[in-house]
Amino acid sequence: MDDALPPPLVKSAAVFIAGLVLRIWLIHAFPIVFGGDSVLRLANRDHILLSYQLPLLQVLIYGVSLISQSLLVIRCLMAIIGATAGIGFYWLIRSFVSERTAFIAALLFTANPFLVEISIVPYQELLMLAGLLFAFQYFLREQQVATSISLAVACLARFEAWIAVPLFAVARARNVAALARACLLFGWAPLAWVLFHVGLSGPGTFVIEWPTSLGRLMRWVYLGWITVKNTPAPALALALAGFWHVCRKHLLRDARVRLLAGFLGLFLMAILFSSHGVSPNPERFVASREATILIAATLGLAALGLEELVGSPHPWLASMLVVLGLTWSVVDVHRFLRRDTGDPHLQLSYQLAQYLDRSAGKEEKILILVKPLPEDMIQEYLDRVRLRQGEAGVARAKQIMAGMDISPPDCQRTIIHSRIGKPRMSCSGDPADKEWIAVWSDSGSIISTEPRVLRTTLRSGPLSVQVYR
User: Which residues lie below 8 Å from residue 164, measured CB to CB, with a gap of 6+?
Assistant: First the structure.
């Protein structure tokens, strides 16, 4: 292979089209949006800054929403980003394996069930990953301006991408002055964000914290398990062969491999300092989407394993694992999405939105009564802000929440799936000025629906929604 050669456009287009077609098919087959963060983003599509979150994805959602309020358009945008990440992987992996192997490995990457699933709803991880893949491949080819732009995309999507800034700067610097210039070239986006907030995030929010116990090390075990569980077995077999390839060829002597390994190592260290753990134990668990980088690294090893097997006495084994891996990926992602969109809360939100779209008049208003958010969850967040920033931070946190739509997810999902949208659909307010009232069975709400009459009862599993007009 020759790093100086431009990536073949036909193969790049094939990787992109394969990834896009798979994602568009799944969006059509599973129209329900899943995931708390993705729903929150769509419910606040008229905002750009959301709490501590980096802004780039929300900027894209905001911009698209100025043109079209269609949920399908935004999901197609996410599909395009996910398919573009496949091109980035293909371009990067060409530096380490043959052209043919890189192309086949890119197909395994773009079809990976986990990466596909989180790239058809508004999650930030694939935008970050696409930016990182392009940044690394441009960096290895010494295209500094393209590296800077690509890394800025990643750094404005998620904080994990910031790890690449010092790595790139140190790798390029020859003296202190060159180091300063490299830091500015590669780190201008994080620097702008820090200057804007006078810190990693504004008052009332937080991003990092010191570990309070050795339980944080369990985050590595958890993310390792997520990586293994969400990587098809044939790809894992290829990754093991790739690890053997790294050892046999002593690839860690290659500065390019050390750069990638250094990023992975620093990412694993940084995850111990994340202040946003998740239930049931925030100290030990983080969002499963944090495994995105680990899964990408595993698929990179799979590319090296594919190269190893192609040159072995049994090249047919490589072909068999690839075919099996691609088939496994498509079956798994379909199974994952059927599971993740089959929850009764998600099903009822979608059913209710579809029913109201068909039934409500153009000027009629709707009140949706759902189970409220747990007060202890909000209080726990405010307590953590108080511990770090005092009462001034708590006041700012309350101000941020007041300026956002933090309605219960069942209500938010109904609104984003409906063509009616805000402000005619709301989760609170005076029932007297609403023509329609939808009451969820687990809402705990007791209100008078008179003089309205029950129009329908929607059901999914143990849940139901009574709709009055």
Answer: 132, 135, 136, 151, 154, 155, 186, 263
Instruction: Determine if the pTM surpasses 0.70.
Output: yes
- The contacts of residue 435 (CB under 8 Å, 6+ apart) are 360, 361, 364, 365, 366, 469
pLDDT digits (tens, 9 = 90+) for 284-303: 999 999 999 999 999 999 99
- Position 424 scores a pLDDT of 93
* Domain residue spans of the chain: 9-340, 344-372+408-468
Which alpha helices (DSSP H) does 164-250 contain, by range?
164-172, 176-197, 218-229, 233-248
Burial class (CB in 10 A: 0-12, 13-18, 19+), 262: middle
| CB contact at 8 A, 306 and 104 | yes
Question: Are the beta carbons of 189 and 151 closer than 8 angstroms?
Answer: yes
H-assigned helices in 44-172? 56-67, 71-93, 99-110, 113-117, 125-140, 144-155, 164-172
Distance CA 69, CA 263 (A): 38
Is there a contact between 60 and 68 (Cβ–Cβ < 8 Å)? Answer: no
* Cβ contact 423:355 at 8 Å: no
Q: How far apart are CA 92 and CA 141, in angstroms?
A: 10
pLDDT at 6: 64
Task: For residue 85, give every residue at least 6 positions away whose Cβ sits within 8 Å of its Cβ, in sequence order, or none.
Answer: 19, 109, 110, 115, 119, 126, 129, 130, 133
- Measure the CA–CA gap between 149 and 109, rounded to whole angstroms: 23
pLDDT in tens, 27-47: 999 999 999 999 999 999 999
Report d(CA 36, CA 18) in Å as an integer: 28
Tell me the average pLDDT of the chain: 93
At 387, the pLDDT band (50, 70, 90 cuts) reads: confident
CA pair distance 218, 215, nearest whole angstrom: 6
Specify whether the CB–CB gap between 179 and 170 falls below 8 A: yes
Beta carbons of 125 and 288 less than 8 angstroms apart? no
Residue with the larger pLDDT of the pair 198 and 58? 58
pLDDT at position 445, please? 77
